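Intended use. Records such as the phosphoserine transaminase entry shown here are meant for training and evaluating sequence-to-structure methods. They are not intended to support clinical decisions.
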Amino acid sequence: MKLLLIALLVLGNTQWITSYEAFQTEEFDSLDGWVIQNQFEATTDIITKCSGKNIIGGLKTFGTKSTATKLIKVPPHYKLKFNLQLWKIGEWENDVFSAYVDGVPWEMKWGFTEGGIRLCGGSESKNSDKVFDVEFEILHNSPTVTTVLATTAQGKADVQAWGFRQIKISFIPCPSDCGICHNDKVQECKYWNQEALSWFHVDTKLEGWKLENGKPKGFECSGIVIFGGYENIGAKALLSNTFTNIVPHSKVMVKFTFWKIDLWDNEEFYVKIDDKQVQKLAFQKTDGIDLCGAKQTNPGYGEKIVSIEIIQKHSSPTLTISFTTSLKNDPDEQSWGVRDFFLFAAQCTKFCDECVGTAENECTKCQPTHTLQDGKCINKNEWYILSKEFFTDDQFNKIDGWTFQDFDPAGPNPPITKCGDLGLVGGYQAFGKKATVQKVFKLPKHDFVRIKATVYKIDQWDGEELTMFVDNQEFWSQFLGWNDPGQSDICGNQNGSWKERIMTIDKIIAHSQSELTVDFKSTLQKTADEASWGFREFLLLYSPLKECIEVFSECNYKGQSSKICDNVESLKDAQIEFDIKSIKIPEGLKITGFKNPGFKGDRVEYETNQELIDRKSEIYKQMIDQYENNPTFWNKFSFAGGPTQLPRSVLHKLEKQFIQPNGKSILELSKYDHEYHQILDQAINDLQSLLDIPNQYKIIFCQGGASLLFEAIPMNLMKTQHSSISYTNTGYWSSKALEEAQKFCQNVNIATNIAQDEFGKRFIPELEQWNINKEDSYLHYCDNETVEGLEYQFIPKFSSVPIVTDMSSNFLTKPLDWSKLDLVYAHAQKNIGIAGSTLMIIKPELINNHQNIPYMWDFKEMFKKQSLISNLPIFPIYVNTLVFDWIRKQGTLDFWDQYCKKRSQQLYKIIDNSHGVYINQVKKEQRSRINITFTLKDEIETNKFIDLCKNNNIIEVKGHRAIGGCRICLYLPIPQIGIDKLSLIMEDFMN
Ligand code: PMP
């Protein structure tokens, strides 16, 4: 897409695009909207024939004072080119032909001797008729152009006449990021944001302006409708408007066309912005040509069009503009009018409230959610996702809580369509005239909201407005149709030449109510098959308010007061110097006080307001875990390789276990305690049912981590001391296992190595290419290579060779096929708990009767003693039981498998769509669902990304030292809100 836009931009610089073309064929019979004034009275035909060709005008038709006028609309551009064929007929005496473009004349003069033979049947003179191909260029950037063709010829049209044919107007477009421009430089125009538009349509009204001393009406002048004009606005008229809510900006541009009508005698027209005169134009008696107004033939009763552009330093969100004149007579003698009024603001950079210019580093004040650093706005708020909708590529199958009104009944219901390859809410033949969309959201306590969305304008809009409201206040709004940057034709009516515009909203507002209503509305006048709109990728984020506990020095919440918003080691740290006598505790929070600093000694707990406390304690506040996805309980998200985070509810339960007033603490249990055995049995039973483990397998808990099993497995499983064993070498951890096995066994066969394809992507070769010995005592592989982020999609089963699998990093993330597995092992600190417990699920017949295995490594001993070969650390196993319980409550292992796929896909999609900002080095089919690895351009970019994450409380995203880059580990307890937050940061970093 980017490439395409750049290509268009380059073409745009060199190519003229035709905007209007008429009267090209030899014969035509329509005027195509051209308005003709003062044609010679002798004839009624405007189109005549000359030398076999039709022309507009011609002999006996266009003579003195004849004019031809037309207004056309042109997409964003900065240069126009006019081509027309002009027919000069009869004898001209130094008369001038003029083409006025918004009042600016292009002129051509003919003397006596210019001309050729008779073409149109008029004079016999040998200098009579001539055909000229006229071509001229003009700098121009308003979305409309008024063209007036006229002459100064004084003779009657049977002697001196003119006509034209083959007219063409072409333009050079603005750079694709700009809706208005003065040249081809993107940097000089992309910041212009259209803020207002008036008098652009045919049905011209007051349109929100204030008019004193005049009639608020439109007037048609030679086919063109202006506001004001003849008999409406003249002496003493004051036309003004105040625009509010202008985006933060450093300057404004005002553009409009002014029409001077009838006889002005050195009188002036004034423009004021915020009470300061910014423009003064004087008009002479001789100015203009007669197009409309008073029916007077006296000289001076002419009309003049002036295209006005004013660029002015300005930064206030409110701007008042006024138009007045020094006229003295009634509007039937001298008058004026306006049309095509536009207000643009040179927008400050994103999240900047005040700026001195539009460059990246010219901000002087940021929004409250951002801090100013070297002229830039850096985000300081925490953002949490409340709602993320319509992000899938295809059509959306879930429309939660949105209501649609007045959408096209002939279109789909619900109104979901596609634009190009992507699904849209609304869109072509769905949302046109009157269609509205609404959703009401409920929010936790917060102080700001941020809304992002991608909005599509489809087909031909005509300066109408699309607006998003938040709680009935305008939140985002855009005029569409004539100052649209960056368009492409991807959906909608494929017959029209109208293109789509894709806009991204990303705005923050202060907001604290618990409910928020989002509405989309438009002023569109057309049905959804002519012009439409839609949206996708809707994201509502909020910045949660940290709730605080309030403490007071007197009972009944009186006296001095202070707030505790975080855990504090001592009251001194919270700057509380008084004894606490009463406490206000928001719902869901708890405060625990300790006698001694460092959370030690006697403790007291309160969960509700306390009117009177008769006790002196060191107090700190503690959060209670209510649910996993509550951001309040995740101060930081860690995507570490392991140990990783625990479910918050597990942490909360654990916290309660340490101090048991009536018994032993969990930390004090020994194998002689009943509870100790209960915990171990629970863990084994839970595991068996979670993983559906057949009865012939034994579940053993041991110590020493997966690394101990790297050594113990060859010791226990080799059939004889000289047997061969097979190992895969598909990543960092399988190679570690292989290395350990080699210390013990002379005969280690490498079944396969990791391979790389022509793009440098790592992959595991197909089973056919592996090298296995039928006599091998076993084949060892690592099902998920934690460091590389590569995961097996199959179990490498070879005839009767037993299969031994290290599942440390993807344990319990999917169901297992026990018909192919003989030994599965994993440590706990990734998916199921904390470091300290390691487990294996093994078929007992696999173990061979070696005599000389040291006791702590000996599987036979582990069996015999049912894991209790030494004092097995029961606390980590207790944590395992809590996590097992948590896993089971969330869903089956099929659910977890799908969930892991979906979560990892969310990040891989960002990586794949990042245009190389992030690169994953694993073949697509074998990418891990758990460990997502990627590299960035270089170390500087990598560190920048890591720092950005850190600043947003996302930690440990650095890749393993063996391969560098970054790694995101999505172990089971990692909450979705953390992944969503990381996704946002990855996208922000990309942009
Ligand atoms: N196997 C795999 C797949 C691993 O990811 C790791 C550690 N990250 C290990 C083994 C080593 O585990 P331990 O620290 O428990 O020895």
